[in-house]
């Protein structure tokens, strides 16, 4: 099933967009099945799951941390952390600087929709936050991440993704050093098609690839 799902998704998505298999709550066997199907990027939102999948997967697989990361937990995964999709606090950057041996590719999480239930900076806060990140050599900001609201209204979803892309475009002129705002991490199983139309370069796919938990 996973192999068939992956083949169909790759036909839709193509090679220009990186597909991250969201394997939270899925078994090691299912995760390795996805690897055998061709998946090389995996997403976990809990430290325990991240470490478990990192240990099980071959070295050429990348495990992205896609959930909210508490600063006190950074040291637990720092040795294996290459991609973080939820940077929105300087306290986390400080811990990355302290514990990571290599630079971590980070997406700044932006709460475009303004929903109280979502983490992330407001769009207005992002420029100042990027300025603060310039002093952290182990933090490489490669782009922005957002999550669309849970709604059937495609125009509402489109508006969120469009706004993140516009924010990225406005920030590109300030790229230098460890601040390289180029990538967009947005789109999940229910809205990845809309996200890709608005320029997503990383999509996080769970049930559409891995099946229901």
UniProtKB/TrEMBL annotation:
Cofactor: pyridoxal 5'-phosphate
Pfam families, A to Z: Ala_racemase_N
Transmembrane stretches, start-end: none
GO molecular function, one term: pyridoxal phosphate binding
Start and end residues of each Alanine racemase N-terminal domain: 2-212
Coiled coil: none
Gene3D superfamilies: Alanine racemase (3.20.20.10)
Keywords attached to this entry: Pyridoxal phosphate
SUPFAM superfamilies (UniProt xref): PLP-binding barrel (SSF51419)
Modified residues (N6-(pyridoxal phosphate)lysine): 24
Annotated family: Belongs to the pyridoxal phosphate-binding protein YggS/PROSC family.
Function of the protein: Pyridoxal 5'-phosphate (PLP)-binding protein, which is involved in PLP homeostasis.
Name used for this protein in its record: Pyridoxal phosphate homeostasis protein
Native species: Salinicoccus roseus
Lineage: Bacteria, Bacillati, Bacillota, Bacilli, Bacillales
């Amino acid at each position: 099933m996973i192999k068939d799902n992956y083949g169909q998704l790759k036909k839709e998505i193509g090679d220009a967009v990186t597909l991250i298999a969201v394997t939270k709550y899925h078994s090691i066997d299912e995760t390795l099945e996805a690897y055998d199907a061709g998946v090389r990027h995996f997403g976990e939102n809990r430290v325990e799951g991240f470490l478990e999948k990192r240990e099980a997967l071959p070295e050429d697989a990348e495990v992205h941390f896609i959930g909210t990361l508490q600063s006190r937990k950074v040291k637990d995964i720092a040795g294996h952390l290459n991609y973080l999709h939820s940077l929105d606090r300087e306290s986390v950057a400080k811990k990355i600087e302290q514990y990571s041996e290599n630079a971590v590719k980070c997406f700044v999480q932006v709460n475009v929709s303004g929903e109280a239930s979502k983490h992330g900076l407001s769009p207005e806060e992002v420029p100042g936050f990027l300025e603060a990140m310039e002093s952290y050599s182990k933090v490489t900001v490669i782009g922005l991440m957002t999550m669309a609201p849970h709604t059937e209204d495609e125009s509402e979803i489109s508006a969120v993704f469009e706004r993140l892309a516009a924010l990225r475009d406005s920030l590109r002129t300030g790229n230098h050093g460890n601040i390289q705002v180029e990538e967009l991490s947005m789109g999940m199983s229910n809205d990845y098609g809309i996200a890709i139309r608005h320029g997503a370069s990383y999509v996080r796919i769970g049930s559409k690839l891995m099946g229901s938990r």
